[in-house]
Amino acid sequence: MTAPMGRRGFLGYVGTAAAGTVVGAGAGVAGARALDEPEPTRAGTRRTGESLSPWGAHQPGIAAHPGAVTELVALDLHPDLHRAGDVDAVARLMRVWTADVEALAAGRGTPGDTAPWLASANADLTVTVGLGPRLFSPPWGLEAPRGFGRVPAMKHDRLAKEWSGGDLVAVVSGRDGTTVGHAVRRLVADAGPFASLRWRQTGSWNPHDPLGRPHTGRNLFGQVDGSANPKPGTDLFDQTVWVKEGAWAGGTSLVVRRIRMDLPTWDELTRSEQERSVGRDLAVGAPLTGGGELDDVDLGAREEGRFVIAENSHVRRSHPSTNGGRRIFRKGANYEAYVDGRAEAGLLFQSYQADLADQFVPIQRTLDTADELNEWTTAIGSAEFAVLPGFTEGEWLGQSVLS
């Protein structure tokens, strides 16, 4: 027997269906303008990927357009290395990973690779490496970038150990799961003498529109996610993301949050309720106060005496003007999995910022206090990493920090 559909469920269905008819026409154009793509790929042709250079002042995966597949893996250093605070061992591992990253980026097998044919050129492949908080406590003696440390507990967090923490992270992103998965397996295998796997999380994103043009992409709530990001290559992006001075110059910090999303109860909302909770139009991602996807929201706009952008909407609570001008650079990857026999869906949220304590933490506290999306989202994993500066040909990952 089919269960009856309630009014809210029906309206929610109608709203979603109506949104879907607009997405194809509007969202792609907004996304293309957002990312300043010079020439769209012709309809019917398949976009080709790129082989991205691993060298530069910054690790390239941070500013690169999101890949279709992202795997995040955290490892723990072996206990004997921890007891000794063996910086030289970490440096040896970074030399090994440097050779791996250079080979994989070029589409070659890693040194000693038993299946080099799984490495693929033009795969949009990037590998981003960082160090966890324990390496900045005794007996290690490493100096952390300014503001780096653990994210304090938030009242809405329900963190699970299996998705939290770690001494090392590798964020591997690319255009297909085979190439990305192979890269992850090689990195984890080559780290074996030094570290063991703590957690591995896999997600996907739709980073290009049907014509092959880069666009912002959507999370599983159907929201265009990341519209307010600072654009890579701008002064605002540089100020938001990169450490400027010292051994960490060119590096950044990363917070990984596994955010579970309650899709069944979200789907019960009407379209207007969903849009009011975030403050943006679902079809094209534009602010409810008008304009296009990339236009700033007008937080002062009122209608019949009430704010158009609700006071507890996500866009207001996360806006720089609500947070003393603070910003982050966010990336996401959607995930759906069966955990302990139950279906789970959500977002692997990645936040990059120059100063974790002064940027991510205050913004997260503002959201934790009154973000309406807290009703349908729960952070169940959290990890922090100091992301190493980039390296040039002949150098190795972390050379300025670990030498």
What's the helix-strand series?
A: HEHHEEHEHEHHEEHEEHEH
Which stretches of 5+ consecutive residues score pLDDT under 50? 1-41
Structural class of the secondary elements? alpha+beta
Span from first to last CA?
68 Å
- Number of helical stretches of at least 4 residues: 10
- What Rg is obtained from the alpha carbons, in whole angstroms? 21 Å
GO cellular component, one term: cytosol
Protein name: Dyp-type peroxidase
GO molecular function, one term: peroxidase activity
Family: Belongs to the DyP-type peroxidase family.
Outline of the structure:
This protein has 403 residues and is of the alpha+beta class.
Task: Describe the overall structure.
There is one protein chain. With 403 residues, the chain is an alpha+beta fold. It has one domain (69-387). Helix content is 28%, strand content 20%. The protein has 10 helices and 10 strands. It has helices at residues 7-35, 79-84, 87-105, 177-190, 235-241, 263-266, 271-278, 314-318, 356-370, 399-402, and strands at 69-77, 126-131, 168-174, 195-204, 252-261, 302-303, 306-307, 329-339, 342-353, 377-387. The chain has an 8-stranded antiparallel beta sheet with strand order 4-1-3-2-10-5-9-8. It has a two-stranded antiparallel sheet with strand order 6-7. α3 (87-105) runs antiparallel to α4. 44% of the residues are buried. Mean pLDDT is 90; it is low at 1-41. GO terms for molecular function: heme binding; metal ion binding; peroxidase activity. Belongs to the DyP-type peroxidase family. One of its GO terms (cellular component) is cytosol. Residues 59-203 form the Dyp-type peroxidase N-terminal domain. Keywords: Heme, Iron, Metal-binding, Oxidoreductase, Peroxidase, Signal.
